[in-house]
Structures are given as C-alpha cells and as structure tokens.
Predict the structure.
Amino acid sequence: MKSTRKFFGNIPVLYFLFLTIVLVCWFLYAQHIDVFDLYARRWPAALTMVFGSFIAGSSPEGSAAIAYPVFTLLLDIPPPVARNFAFAIQSIGMTSATLLILGLHIKVEWNYIRFVTLGGVFGLVLGTYAVVPLVSPVMAKLFFVSLWLSFGIALWLENRRPERQVFDEIRNFKRSDKINLVLFGFIGGIISSLFGTGINIFTYCIMTIYYRVSEKVATPSSVIIMTIETILGFFIHAQVLRDFQPAAFEMWIACVPVVAFFAPLGAFVISKLPRKSIAQFLYFILVVQFFGAMWVIKPSPWQLAMCSTVLAVGLGTFTYLARVRRASSTEGAAGSGG
C-alpha cells in the first residue's frame, strides 16, 4: 500500500488533467471541421512545432524562436500572424511543460520567476501598444540572434573555466537584485511583444552569467516565466485587441496536439541531463539560430555590420558582467575569511 501511495504521489496530476482537457476539447472541435484538409494546408506548421515545442520545453528558448523565423522567412507568413500564433501555441505547450516541471518537483529559482515576471507584464503591455508598430521585424530578428549568440559565446568561455562555481539559487538576494530582475524582465517583456518570445532567453543570460545560477535550474525557471508571459500575450491579442487572425487560429488548431506532448517531453528530457549537456545543447541552438537567420535573411552589408557590432558589444558586456560577479564573490569570500 505504501509503494502504491508513493507512486501515485509522484504522478504530475495537474499536467495529466490539463493534457486530458486540451485533447478532449481539441477532439470535440475537430468533429466539426475537415481535419484532413486542415493538415493538408497546415502540415508545415505542425512539423515546425514538433521541433519548436521540444526546444521550448528543454531550453530557455520559446518555441517562437523556431516558429517565428520559419514562418516569416520560409513560409512567407506575415509577422503579426506568426507572433499571435506563437502566443497561442505556447499557451498550450509551455503550460503543459510548466505543469510537468511543477508536478515532478524539478528545481527552479522562485525569486527569479517572481520578479522577472512582474517586470515582464509591464514590458509586454508597453511593447504591444508602443513598440511593435515602430520596429522592423527583420532588423529586430537580426539584432536578437546576434545578441543571443554573443551570450552563448560568453557562457561557453565561462564554462571552460575549471574553477567556475554555479549555484541553485541567487545567493545573498538583496533589494538591488529585485530591482535588477524587474528591470530585465521589463526589457524582456518588450522583446516578447515583438516575437512572442524573448523574456526567457534574455533574463536567462543574466541568471547564468551574472548570478551564476546553474543552467539546470535556470532553464525550467525560464520556461515558467515564458508560460505566464505567453498566456498574457495570448489574452491581449485574442480578447483585448481582438486581432487574432483566422490563419493564426488555423495553425493553432493544427499544432495543439503536437505541442501538448513535445513541450513537456523536452522539459522531462532536460531534467535528466547534466548541467554541461544542457549548456552544450543551448550553444547548438544559438549557433543554428544565428546562421539560419543569416542564410534565410541574407543581410545586406549594412545589416552584417550591425550584427557584428551587436556581437562584439554583447560579448564584451556579458564577459564584463561575469568578471564583475567573480570579483565581487572573491572580495566577499576574502572579507568573510578575514
């Protein structure tokens, strides 16, 4: 009896309940449409989300990091449609991944989640109304893939140091840390308003480079943050702005059963990998994302110059942050030793 009780106690009940509700609702809706015709037209979106949702659950990149460039650059889907689809589909995939993370009691950093989410809510709302109309999607994409690659290089350099220490939480959490996290969450929320994702990877950079939180903890934490952000983004576009396009809805319906399984599968797989393997997986994603954007966009010389500048400045900034944190930790250890 004890072993049975222990087994059922380890089952992520909320995840299975959510999965059941989603699939039953999808099946009931599918009775009223021509499913074969839907997949004949929308199979590229469903195939893209097999990979996108797995990566969303297993890394700090949301599925929109895969879907947005594929949809806008390869499938010629308008950026607003790709963004709205990203919010909608992540509301299923990342919610299921979050419920699995919580149900399996995977370690997360709650201070990171709370304060980044607080800033992210305001950033998402401001970005949706004030920033999105002003920014070229192509230029924004080039900027951010360059910034993320600079972070990946900086993290790789840090992990090459044999003496590098990582932690399961933000150590000596102070008021200044709360302000930092809210501020970076605010900026990340603006980024998410453009692409349907971004707050997760942007704040993950700070967590792993500056606060030296383990990739094994920062990754599931970033998934929870993006889940909250994406549900809010979906609500804004579907219920407040009411600009949720029929094409976005069609792709959403086609992809719901895909992401409901593959996003939590990614979260489960990543929970079983060692920290360095998670970091190596992230390096791979960031490199592929950068060169994939270069191949598809074929940037002009001026755009290439912008990418190079962002790479250089980003790498300098992230390595500086890492050095500052190392110096402050060394001084703190020396002070406590004295």
